[in-house]
Design a protein that fits this description.
five-stranded mixed β-sheet; alpha+beta; 51% helix; 475 residues; single chain; 18% strand; five-stranded antiparallel β-sheet
Length: 475
């Protein structure tokens, strides 16, 4: 079963690594592709604008060299144009002048550059405002793609004659440059993607190393090679490791407490069982009442021990449950009524002083009654005439409350106070009891994170101070 669990853990680790790598590489691929498309588009647009800007300069040069003769016909001196490509046939740079009639029709190629040789550029009729520039893409000589810029002008002194000036340039060089840039960009981005994927793999591998160390630590705990997770973990994982170690320590404490309680219970029951065994082996007494009284006494002692250990087990299981709260005043009121009946023959006066604001114990009502009942019963047994119970709240976090029970009895000396809370110790055998009352209170208080203190009372006897966790009053 352990091997299967280990294989499952390793499979989980590999699966997590695969998922992280898949998500990371997919994201990187999408990002690189989008970046390539954006960069390629930006480069293409930049080249196009630069090409158009250069062509506008050529159009301006042609416009500046355009003149009209006496009949209003356009004239352009070819030698006046500076670029030699105007004179080379099919050089890729062309100009042309079209006549535009008032009805929108015209005559193409009235004038054209030597580079057009015996062809002319055929453009659709376009409504152009004087001086405005339009941009087109058409097929030129030998089917080459051309970028065309056109504008209309008028001869001076005439309103009807309009002429369309056309400048065109071959786009093949620009398209080749754009394609070359796109190829280089694709190769560069592909190399970058490979490097990023390798970096992502290294990052995932390094990032999962603490999880693998945690897995090995858990296997060590499972196979009993250690009792807690050990090793150095990143700051992000250390709280998880600390919490897990706290759970392990808590479980170890519970197991150790269970073993101790089982041993204590067995040890506590040995005495009454031995007494009963001796009584059963001894000759039968003439008076059966004495034997019955002995059996009842030892059974009560055994029951008291069993009840005590059961109470400890119950509190250990529920002491740290959230949301528990028990009102102090009703519990105290019910216990005082019981004590007045139990000790009615002694004439003990029990006074209670509680604050105006209600107090709440952060625990179960049965445990609070067990603790306060033992304290009140013990005080009533030893008091001469007065028992006083007081309670108050301690400041700070977490909130705590202090309950004190004092009497006007003989009290206990400082040397005997430590013995008074030991299990089964009775300082005075003349007073009935089992010697478990204060020990029970101390153990229950400790399980709730509280404490029990013994000190001299203002009334002259013993003052028992019980500190317990308090619960806030709900709104």
């Amino acid at each position: 079963m352990k091997r299967g669990a280990n294989r499952g853990g390793l499979h989980w680790s590999r699966s997590l690594r695969f998922r992280l790598l898949a998500v990371t590489v997919t994201g990187l691929t999408v990002a690189v592709v989008l970046a390539g498309l954006v960069l390629s588009g930006l480069f293409r647009e930049h080249v196009q604008r630069q090409f158009e800007a250069a062509l506008v300069q050529q159009l301006d040069q042609v416009t500046a060299r355009l003149e009209f003769d006496a009949q209003g016909q356009p004239v352009i001196a070819a030698q006046a144009l500076s670029d030699p490509r105007w004179l080379k046939p099919y050089s890729g740079l062309y100009w042309q002048v079209d006549a535009m009639a008032p009805d929108g029709r015209g005559r193409a190629g009235v004038l054209r550059s030597r580079s057009l040789w015996d062809t002319s550029l055929a453009l659709q009729v376009d409504a152009l405002a004087d001086g405005a520039v339009h941009v087109h893409e058409v097929a030129g000589p030998q089917g080459a793609p051309l970028l065309v810029l056109e504008r209309t002008v008028r001869a001076e002194g005439t309103d009807a004659a309009r002429w369309r000036l056309i400048v065109a340039a071959d786009l093949q060089a620009t398209q080749a440059a754009t394609a070359q840039f796109t190829r280089v960009l694709a190769l560069s981005l592909a190399a970058l993607l490979v490097l990023l994927a390798a970096a992502a793999w290294a990052q995932v591998a390094v990032g999962l190393q603490p999880l693998q160390a945690l897995q090995r630590g858990l296997q060590d705990v499972q196979q009993a090679r250690t009792t807690r997770l050990q090793g150095a973990f990143p700051a992000e994982m250390q709280p998880l490791v600390d919490d897990f170690n706290a759970v392990l320590e808590r479980n170890a404490e519970v197991v150790e407490r269970a073993r101790t309680q089982a041993g204590n219970l067995a040890h506590a029951l040995k005495t009454p069982l031995s007494v009963l065994e001796n009584a059963a082996c001894a000759p039968a007494p003439s008076d059966g009442a004495a034997l019955a009284a002995l059996v009842r006494e030892q059974v009560q002692v055994a029951r008291r021990h069993i009840d005590w250990h059961l109470a400890r087990s119950r509190v250990a299981a529920s002491a740290h449950l959230p949301g528990q709260r028990t009102a102090l005043e009703p519990a105290v009121g019910g216990l005082v009524r019981v004590m007045n009946k139990v000790h009615a023959g002694r004439g003990v006066d029990i006074t209670v002083a509680l604050p105006d604001a209600p107090l709440f114990f952060a625990g179960e009502a049965q445990d609070l009654q067990e603790m306060l009942g033992n304290l009140l019963d013990n005080a009533c047994k030893w008091a001469q005439s007065t028992v006083r119970l007081q309670a108050q709240v301690l400041g700070g976090l977490p909130p705590q409350m202090v309950v004190s029970v004092e009497d006007d009895g003989p009290g206990i000396g400082a040397a005997q106070r430590a013995q008074a809370v030991e299990r089964g110790v009775r300082l005075d055998e003349t007073v009935p009891g089992t010697g478990l009352g204060l020990a029970i209170v101390q153990d229950l208080a400790a399980l709730y994170g509280g404490r029990l203190e013994l000190e001299p009372a203002d009334l002259g006897g013993l003052r028992v101070v019980l500190v317990l966790p308090a619960a806030r009053e709900t709104a």
